Amino acid sequence: MSLKYLLKQAQNISLKHKIFAEETGKNFNIFNIIGVTTREVYLCRLLCELINPKGQHYLNRLYLDLFLEHVLELNPKDFKNISIERERVIEDLRRIDICINVVDKNNNAFTIPIEVKINAKDQENQVCDYCHSVNDNPIYYLTKYGEYPSDVSIGYLSKDKIKCISWSKHILNWLDECTYHRATGERIPIKIILQQFKVAIQQFLGQTEDSIMEISELLLENLENFENAQNISNSLDVAKEKIMKGFRSKLKEQLINNSYVIQNSIEPAFRLQNYYWHIEIANDKNQEARITYDKDRKIYITYNSEIEEVFAEEHFYNDFYVNSAKTINQFIIPAIKKYLG
Q1: Burial 278-304 (b: 16+ CB within 10 A, else e)
Q2: 10, 25, 43, 316: which has the highest count of C-beta atoms within 10 A?
Q3: How far apart are CA 111 and CA 100, in angstroms?
Q4: What is the DSSP string of 27-43?
């Protein structure tokens, strides 16, 4: 199969699943509609409610034990008493997102801290200080793909104190375990919420499970398909970089034209973390904001720790040369003016 025909077949598969999702209502997702899946605070609330033995699911420790086993890779039988604490306040009024307070079978009491990250920036010594505040117990660092925190956040902390977990693997696997448990099957409203939560996570990760599986089967049909796909994969980062280089240039130009000062620009080498790149800007009143473009083709504005998704275009790369100026002028600049004036 020629390279051009292979791309056309993959496009047809993606389109088929997109149409199916629209026709069946799969894309109608309450978490995406209210913006839960772009805000760490709301995600922590939902996670805490699900793993809380006293949560309104009334399933006691069921989801918590599954969380311990499939996310934290701990044995639930090792703990006889557990309570969940959200946003524990530590020194300088900083907050640990989730704390699991446990008493083990040997009557040892300690805290398991979890720091949740999606798009927020690490603070200086953040992970280090969080770990120290819980008597140097290991801290679980939850990100999209299981990345380590930045060196700025780690500080002097040794990396063996950091347990990296991910939305893409650990949380999705845990949600499957919760969803398909017999007890959940007897509680249909809870099952629907879990299913929608999983789909919302897959969307902010850029995953569409059904189309990925079908395209993978297409690539395995013969050696030529697989080799062509490998060539595409090897060229993809170069193509993305060319597109984004042009976009960054236009964005900086428009920001300057609108009287904003560019303070810092993190280039795409930073893409090994959560971000492809970000630009920090300020106005004449010394108010600061950040523009972030992430792996999922979404653009965010961050101002005073508030994160707003201002643009998400499924076909961003395809439409780039036509729509880049439109994206900047109709979405990004108005969002900045909303916060910085």
Answers
A1: bbbbebeeeebbbbbbbbbbbbbbbbe
A2: 43
A3: 6
A4: T--HHHHTTGGG-HHHH
3-class SS letters over 182-197: HHHHCCHHHHHHHHHH
Q: Residue 291 is which amino acid? A: I
Q: How far is CA 240 from the centre of its chain?
A: 20
CA distance 82 to 10: 48
User: How far apart are the C-alpha atoms of 149 and 130, rounded to whole Å?
Assistant: 12
pTM: 0.62
The model's pLDDT over 275-333, given as tens digits with 9 standing for 90+, comes to 567 788 888 888 888 887 765 567 888 887 677 777 665 445 545 555 677 778 878 88
Distant-in-sequence, close-in-space partners of 87: CB < 8 Å, separation ≥ 6? 44, 95, 96, 97
**Tens-place pLDDT, residues 205-246:** 766 666 666 677 777 777 777 777 777 777 776 776 777 777
253 membership: H or E segment, kind and range? helix 223-257
What type of residue sits at position 279?
A: I
